[in-house]
Automatic annotation (TrEMBL):
PROSITE patterns cross-referenced by the UniProt entry: RIBONUCLEASE_P
Organism, scientific name: Jiella sonneratiae
Family: Belongs to the RnpA family.
Signal sequence residues: none
InterPro entries tied to this protein: Ribosomal_Su5_D2-typ_SF, Ribsml_uS5_D2-typ_fold_subgr, RNase_P, RNase_P_CS
Function: RNaseP catalyzes the removal of the 5'-leader sequence from pre-tRNA to produce the mature 5'-terminus. It can also cleave other RNA substrates such as 4.5S RNA. The protein component plays an auxiliary but essential role in vivo by binding to the 5'-leader sequence and broadening the substrate specificity of the ribozyme.
Enzyme Commission number: 3.1.26.5
Reactions catalysed, as given in the entry: Endonucleolytic cleavage of RNA, removing 5'-extranucleotides from tRNA precursor
First-level EC class: hydrolase
Annotated protein name in UniProt: Ribonuclease P protein component
A Pfam family per the record: Ribonuclease_P
Underlying gene: rnpA
GO MF annotations, alphabetized: ribonuclease P activity
Length: 124
């Protein structure tokens, strides 16, 4: 993803929090290849550190997490400073875990939690 409008649209989707980053994911409903974008704010560090974080995340996605991305979904990964010092294996596992949650049974749950009430009523 390269356009600001695509990043802003992903904010309306589901948000998956984690210790090193959070992922905003929005279903495009076109069944196309999954796309991702990276955001590293200036609060995280200087340009060298922000670029190193982006490189680490891109490589973790390329090597291990790309297979777990769901087709037809845009992912925006908003990094925290801890990505710099996290072991690469741990970083890869966290990415895979977040992407796998999008493929889980409650992927259509709205960010506001509308699906939670439906689950409770079915189990009663």
């Amino acid at each position: 993803m390269t356009k600001r409008a695509e990043f802003l649209a992903a904010r309306k989707g589901r948000r998956l929090n984690g210790p090193f980053f959070f992922v905003e994911a929005l279903r495009r409903d076109d069944g196309g290849r999954p796309r991702f974008g990276l955001t590293v704010t200036r609060k995280v560090g200087n340009a060298v550190e922000r670029n190193r974080i982006r490189r680490r995340l891109r490589e973790a996605i390329r090597l291990s997490a790309e297979a777990d991305m769901v087709p037809g979904i845009d992912y925006v990964i908003v990094a925290r400073r801890d990505v710099l010092t996290a072991p690469f294996d741990t970083l890869s596992q966290e990415l895979r875990r977040r992407f796998a949650r999008m493929a889980g049974p409650n992927e259509k749950t709205a960010p506001g939690g509308e699906g939670r009430a439906e689950r409770r009523s079915r189990s009663d």
